[in-house]
Write the structure tokens for this entry.
Amino acid sequence: MTPNHLYFIYLQLANSSLSEEAVLGFEYGMSIDDPKSLIIWEAQFGDFFNGAQIMIDTYIASGELKWLLQSDLVMLLPHGMDGAGPEHSSCKIERFLQVISNDQGHLCRRSRFVKLLLQSDLVMLLPHGMDGAGPEHLSCKIERFLQSLCPFPAGEIQQEVTKYPNATDFLWSQEEHRNMGAWTFVSPRFNNLVGCKLQYVGRDHLGSPATGIGEVHRQESIQIIEDTFS
């Protein structure tokens, strides 16, 4: 074999930094460059997107309005207050609800649908997964799935609420703390668009997404269920 037939292949191995910002920025660029492809970015835990917040604020949430660059990027953010601690519980859904307009994006909680529950003159709205053992006098429970929080399904909710003309009290029960989750988004919309004033049931205000003490988390979860069905 002559030297002209020799081929050298260079393989370079390098450790890349654990950077959500870099990876999400790359995926956003791919979605712009190849709009016919389905580009999906999934966080191991929903709150890991924290390291990529600048990409969301500067490009994903506002790129179309600023530069007419439309992106079909799909972000999958696992979310659940399951006692795993502050850094593994919340995808901070409240941030996304604050930065997107009603006709700009779609935010779906397909793993935690919202339910309508009926108890004589009481309608309660609960995130899916919180319908644990309630009091025995709950004689009727009706489930209606609201697959999307944004655009806000005001018409669908109004249609359901009018089926129960005797309902006078409406509760919104959520796992997240009061200054987090969907509460600050749905409360004014229920009041202004649906004509229902919601009462809040859930964890109180907190600077951290969740407690780091397992027993405290368990007691909080029990209290939410008791307050919801009391």
